[in-house]
Amino acid sequence: MRRILSLGLLFILGFYTQVPFSFGLNLEKSFFIMNDSINFSVYNIPESVMVNESGDCWINQSKTITVNVYSEPGNYPMNATILISGCGLNISIDERYAIYEGFWIEDGVYILDISPKQAGTLTITIINMTYNLNASRDFLIKGLNGYAWTSKGKDKVIIIGRTEKIIFSVDYGQYAHVHLTWVNEFWNDVVCINHTIGDNTAGNGMNGEFEFIIDEDDLDDGDGYIIIVGRAGGCYVWDLIEVLEPIYIPPPDIEGPNTGKPGIIYEFSFVTNIPDDGELSYYIDWGDEQVTNWTPLLESGIPYVENHTWINQGTYFIRAKAKDIFNTESNWTDFKIEILRTRATTNTVWYYWFLERFPLLEILLELIRVI
Fold first, then answer.
1. What backbone phi and psi angles, to 5 degrees, belong to 211?
2. Minimal CB count within 10 Å: which of 108, 207, 255, 271?
3. What angle separates helix 359-370 from helix 349-357, to the nearest 10 degrees?
4. Cα(153)–Cα(241) distance, rounded to whole angstroms?
5. Which residue intervals of 62-144 are DSSP H helices?
6. What is the set of domains in the chain, with CATH numbers?
7. What is the SS3 assignment for 120?
8. Prior bond to 73 cis, omega within 30?
9. Which strand ranges, in their side-by-side order, compose the sheet holding 253-255?
């Protein structure tokens, strides 16, 4: 009997030397994943999409999970890259930089907050790049399915000062309650923007879609995020739209000759650069009552090239400005060109038209003038 008790005690002690143990964590909510070379445990994995309802302001809740990574045999702690995917999440914590991102506590222990956006399968993958080892585990998350986008290019960004529409597609939309809440970039200030109940009418749950017009008055508090939360049947789904100040559009650079002659065709280029390699259009005033009205869109940094001819001599100011796809415009750029009369001719368009097509004649006339 004494020998059986001793063997049992040794078995228990041996088990706890192989599996990391953390006081205060609910082991019933933990998962141990083992293979021949790398193991990990996950504590406090969320079971469903979580939302904090406070009046009309609904915001997503995060759950703090702990991931312990260790090797087998020996139960040695290991640093690793943590990949969390599915349920609207795509998180990567590189083992080489984890300590700088605030996730790494000590060898092999990661503490991080996660907040699944929708129902589905959440996959946690552990990769040790040093020894080319990996292991993974899937977790089922309860909730609704859905996602949001904006009316400008189906992105997830709203620029302050532009009237845009948020479209939110959600399962059971015809029955869902949907709330929009603004939070600042530090997540410590909250403003309720809008809320509605699905009644299966256009833009309000019909075909599972909701539509909300977001104008400048809703975004007076500046940069941050809009959290869209849908609830139906006690289940949730949420998504996030980023709110940004207007992007500064620099005035375009203009390149071309500073002097010229009446009736001659001259080439000019117009170009500006904006962040994220967006698209731009250009408006050009040639200073002679002729304009080029908003060119086709070009990639940022690619010059727009156009030719122009002035009929009469004088000083002209070319003015140009750029705008992006959201109609945010730059300031004007001015470019001066002097259209001069030559001494050898009368001021007629036909004369310069003739010289342009017979340049050797112009050289001959210039030589005669010099002599």
1. -125, 135
2. 207
3. 110
4. 13
5. 98-101
6. 25-141 (2.60.40.1930), 146-244 (2.60.40.10), 253-340 (2.60.40.10)
7. strand
8. yes
9. 253-255, 265-271, 304-309
Q: What SS3 state is found at 173?
A: helix
CA pseudo-torsion sign 215, 216, 217, 218? positive
Which residue type does 173 have? G
The number of beta carbons lying within 10 Å of the beta carbon of residue 303 is: 16
> Within the chain, what is the greatest distance between any pair of CA atoms?
129
Read off the amino acid at residue 363.
Answer: I
Q: Which pLDDT value is given to residue 359?
A: 65
pLDDT along the chain (371 residues), means of 10: 33 32 37 63 92 93 88 70 93 67 63 93 87 86 95 79 86 93 88 90 90 76 88 95 86 95 95 85 96 94 95 94 88 95 55 61 60 59
Convert the pLDDT of each residue in 132-186 to its tens digit.
Answer: 788 889 999 999 999 999 987 677 888 887 778 899 999 989 999 999 999 988 8
Tokens of 265: 């065709």
CA 313-316-321 angle, 5° bins: 150
First to last CA, the chain: 129
Q: CA 196 to CA 164: how far, in whole Å?
A: 18
Label residues 81-103 b or e (16+ Cβ within 10 Å = b).
Answer: bbbbebbbbeeebbbeebeeeeb
Q: How far apart are CA 18 and CA 10, in angstroms?
A: 12
Q: What's the pTM value of the predicted model, to 2 decimals?
A: 0.66
User: In degrees rounded to 5, what are phi and psi of residue 94?
Assistant: -75, 135
Q: Enumerate long-range contacts of 368-371, CB under 8 Å, 24 or more apart.
A: 368/344, 369/343, 369/344
pLDDT of residue 223: 82
